[in-house]
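Q: Could you predict the 3D structure of Phototropic-responsive NPH3 family protein?
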Amino acid sequence: MDRCDKQMHQQHHHQQQQQQQLSMSKSARQRCNHEWIFSDVPTDITIEVGGRIFALHKYPLVSKSGRIRKLVAEHRDSDFSRIELLNLPGGAESFELAAKFCYGVNFEITSSNVAQLCCVSDYLEMTEEYAKDNLGSRTETYLDSVVCKSLEMCVEVLQHCEYLLPLADELKIANKCTDAIASKACAEQIASSFSRLEYSSSGRLHMNKQTKCDGDWWIEDISALRVDLYQRIIAAMKCRGVRPESIGASLVNYAQKVLTKKSNLWNPSSQSKDDIVVSSIEHEQRLVVEAIVSLLPVEKLVVPISFLFGLLRTAVLLDCTIACRLDLERRIGSQLEMATLDDLLIPSFRHAGDTLFDVDTVHRILVNFSQQEDSEEEMDDNSAYESDGLDSPSQSALLKVAKLVDNYLAEIAADANLKLSKFLVIAETLPADARTNHDGLYRAIDIYLKAHQGLTDLEKKKLSKLIDFQKLSQEAGAHAAQNERLPLQSIVQVLYFEQVRLRNALCCSYMETDHKPMHQSWRISSGALSAAMSPRDNYASLRRENRELKLELARLRMRLNDLEKEHVCMKKDMQKSNSRKFMSSFSRKFGKMSFFSHSNSRGSTSPSKQSQKTDPKVFGRNT
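A: Sure. Here are the predicted structure tokens for Phototropic-responsive NPH3 family protein:
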């Protein structure tokens, strides 16, 4: 029992010592926090702010603060000695600075506390009505004369305003800083432009484009702001006339900083995070993407097209608004000729079991591009005869996009889940004259046929109709002639056009050897005639030639129909006759088709032999 009593006594003594230490430390903190309070005069009012207690005196407070004066006056008859200030902007720290001001204690107003002091002075009604040079006027003067002269200080004030909204908006603190930043950026840009002016050798004043522009140093500073405040600054800069290139560079920098901060959000290992936290981060990033898209300049090429594709991927991933995604697709379509294959390969995020890549989004982008091409052609239709069609920027962009689409089709063709309808709609989006060479399209179709061997004959015919076999190279034609995956009708077309090509080559060779002077004179007279014609007549002549070519193509199609009928008859004979009779009939009918009527000439080569020489790097082997 004595030992137990002794242990209990020691524990009680230890607890008393701990309580004394805690009370001593607490009193020391209070003395440290309130050293500026009169120690020789007893306090007569207690104010609570955010859980902290301030034992103060009424007179210094009511002499500067209209709010506290009114509260004290309302309870003059009662024993009123405690006030709780709810929702005070800036919390206890801001109130402590305001109380120090009431007590006449000197402290420095800086860019880190001026926003809080402006808001707390408004909350406590510390205006000129209650005291001269009160806290409200002091902070406003500092904001106008010091902060707004420096872009860095304005950015710092805006960062503190993030936690003081909407009061900071009501007091126009954020608007003043936003306008000041936009004005400074515009002034810096003008000064930088003047510094790049120089006189040329002829004495003319011009802009030196090789000199680096140093007027965009503000891009890094404003990237630290929250998206809503950043959005205000960019909008103000647009109104002030800041260069679209500078705004585009700022948007790229801001997106890279903000959207890559939480890149681990989409890691499989991060899925164990709290759903509320993940949802909050998704919402924040969604707002950033939608804000950046709304701020993009209307001018082309002010941001890289790879950046636009990156925004589009993020917008699809975060399920941004339809308007946001359509805007990005329209912007990308307007400069699609600058894109690469990697840009177009947008993963399919949302739908399990669907295609590997988002084909629908790419189709909408191609539709936007085609519509833009159509509108440009309509605008330039009246002056089309004055321009060179193949050398025009529009035609050049069309050829680039056609090559890009063929490569894209070849990339997605191996996907087993890719439906034929989606493949066809991508291939048919561009106009017929977009491809001068059909090798890329043939390669993509061959890959699709190889990956989807269960297609019906009708579906294979739909695919083969996409190919203009006259636009195949010699290597591609040789490969197609042996390609068992193609329908028989397509193989017949390939063999026919190979023979036509061979005939033309022989005719050209004959004309060059026997009729060279006549040919040259014809070219000279034709050139003189073309030069004598007016541009409008020349354009009309080109249109007539185009119609004649179309008629010739129609005649070739009719000939192809005749060949198909011959083929049907051959199949019927094969079913009715025995093998020997069939072979003799086959040889007679094959001779009527006259595919190789010039094959007996010594200089000709059989297309069937040519077709064996295949480029394996481009087309692969038939399997």
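Q: Anything worth pointing out?
A: The two ends are 98 Å apart (CA to CA).
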